[in-house]
Fold this protein.
Amino acid sequence: MSRTLRLPLAALALACFVAPAPAQEPIRLARTPDVSPDGKLVAFSYLGDVWTVESIGGTARQVTSHVAHDVNPVFSPDGRYLAFSSNRHGSYDVFVVPVQGGRPRRLTFDSANDYAAGWSPDGKKILFTSTRSTDFPPSYELFTVPVEGGMAHRLTTAGAKEGVYSPNGDRIAYVRGPGTWYRKGYRGSANDDLWVCNADGTNNRRLTAFDGQDSSPMWGADGNTLYYVSEIHGTANIVAQSLAAGGAAVAAKPRQLTFHKDDSVRRARVSRDGRWIVYECGPDLWVVGTGEGAVPRSSPSPSTPTTRPTPSASRPSPAASPSSPSRATRSTSPSPSTANCSAGCWPARTPSRCS
């Protein structure tokens, strides 16, 4: 089974084993997106499985298929693999699977929940967030686990989540605090701030001092810019902060990249080349460039493919995407051909008819 995604990116359209219909209904609520190192592919979680779609639109391909909940896909530095978290064995564990699909390989085995957060730049370790500790109440900490398997190693000891390695791997930016994204407009000591530490978990220092929510840290390709989600300008949007020598944030107010007003930006991820950011806002996924004056992309009508694309299929260059807004559609795989559902097929109300 496969599906397709609208990228305001905004919604995914359903395809079912029924007679063709003239219109396709967008699918909403695709979640936890990540963007490939070259910015050409977006991975996301939808209906409990991991999917990928070209960042400028096209066919969404199903990567995992399981009755459990698969979330938080993150691309490897070479773009060939996805780490993700799944509760198929009870608690959430970290798994790795090829981008084109296959049998996932389990890397963590703890009874606590482990949430994939990123990869080391050399591709040898996966960074994840977990509550595995003897502390009470439990707090999130950062751990690494070898991609080839082995013991997990704890990095932080005072609360950390949403960790990401710097481009050269010498630092990790992360979120510290008890805050939550849905407490819109909160100001006070129970907020989240951004911190940075050395790759071994030492020398922790605070980057942001805003008394509202800061989350989703993302390194620019030069290692001297940090993108993140913040309410510092009002509604939570993506901002860019320059870093001084040694990694400290400069005093200037961060530059705003997105300007959503009705809905807040949530989970955001940047491509390894630093050019593209994918993020959640409202019920949709969006893509924005990191250059000055970049505008989040909207989408045209979806198209329904008749065959499942291969990983080696050619993709349009993302350089052309700002003028070519995108939307992906949903197809069915491994069946070689599909037809579109009517508007009443979303959400899928008749499992015997819809995949």
Residues 69 and 87 are 6 Å apart (CA to CA). The longest strand covers residues 81-89.
